[in-house]
Amino acid sequence: MGVKLEVFRMTLYLTFPVAMFWIANQAEWFEDYVIQRKRELWPPEKRRELEEFKERIRKQREEKLLRAAQQSS
Question: Membrane-spanning regions, if any (predicted)?
């Protein structure tokens, strides 16, 4: 029974990751589930707000670096 059990376990260990990789790389599945879920979580209006926030933070960092550079020179 030991050899049969080991063969079953090895088959399971090899089959599961390969099957998950194959399922995850199906373009139709990705479009149907992942992109749809992404749009539900982050609708376009929220995305615009997030981009504006990122831009404000980037400008603040640049201004801080410019002030520090001007003070050091």
Answer: none
Query: In this structure, which amino acid lies at residue 62?
Result: E
Q: For the chain (length 73 residues), average pLDDT per consecutive 10?
A: 89 93 82 82 83 95 94 82
Longest dimension (CA), the chain: 78
pLDDT score of 28: 82
Q: Tell me how far apart the alpha carbons of residues 32 and 65 are, in angstroms, rounded to a whole number.
A: 44
Identify the three-state secondary structure at position 1: coil
Which letter does DSSP use for residue 72 in this model? Answer: H
Determine the pLDDT at residue 38. 83
